[in-house]
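Maestro: structure, please.
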Amino acid sequence: MDQRQRRILGQPLSIPTSQPKQKRTSMISFFSKVSWKLKFQKREPLKNVFFVLAERARDPNAKKRHMAMRGLGTMACEAPDKVRKHKKIVLDLLVYGLYDPVSLEVIHESMKTLTVVLGKIQGKGLGSFFIDITLQTRTLLDDENDSLRYSAFVLFGQLAAFAGRKWKKFFTGQVKQTRDSLLIHLQDRNPQVAKACKTTFRACSPYLKLRKEYSFQSEEDQRNTKLYRQLSHYHPEILQFFYANKIL
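Here you go.
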C-alpha cells in the first residue's frame, strides 16, 4: 500500500473535485438510495438493498466498495433485525471487504462495520467466518496506520468474547501468537490505540492462563516471566487484574 493511501485512512472519505460531475452525483445518489430504502423499508423489500450493496461490494472501483461497507454499517445500526436475519450474506460481504487486496479504506471500513454487526448478533452463528475474521484482524494489530491498529484491537477484543467452546482452542493459539503485539502496543505512540490494546489485553487474558503441567523450565514459563516483568514495570494495574483472576 502506498504512503498516500495510509495518510488519508481514518479521515472522512471526500470526493475529489477533479471527478466528473456525473460521477460525483452517482456516488451521492447511491448513498441516498440506500438511506431511502432503509427509511422506507416497509415499502421497498430490504433484499433490494442487499442486492445493491452486494453488487457494490465487489465492484472494481475501490470507492464503491468502500461505500458498500459503509452502507452495511448504516444498515446494521438502523435495521439490526434485518441484519440478523440475513447475517450470512452480510458477514460474507464484510469478510470479502476485510481481505480487500488493494484498498486500506475498504479494509478499515469493513473492520468498523464488523464490530457493529458482531455486537448486534452477539457473535452467534459466525461459523467459519470467525477464523477468517480473526486471522486477518491479527495481522493488522501491528499496522503502521493508527486508525487500522485501533480498529483491529477493538475487533480482536470483541472476538475474544465470542470464541466460545467451538473456537476456544483456535483462538487461544491466536492470542498466544499475538502476545508480543499486545505487550508492545500497551505503550503505543497513539493513546487511543494504547487504551484499546489494554482493553483487548484484559478481554484476552483468560486465553493466557498457564497450564499446570508446564514445567518451570519450559519456554512457556520463560515467556510468562517476561510478561510479568513488563507488566509490573509499565502496567501494575493489569498485573493486579491477572493475579485476581489467577492468570499469573
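Notes: The chain is about 70% helix and 0% strand.
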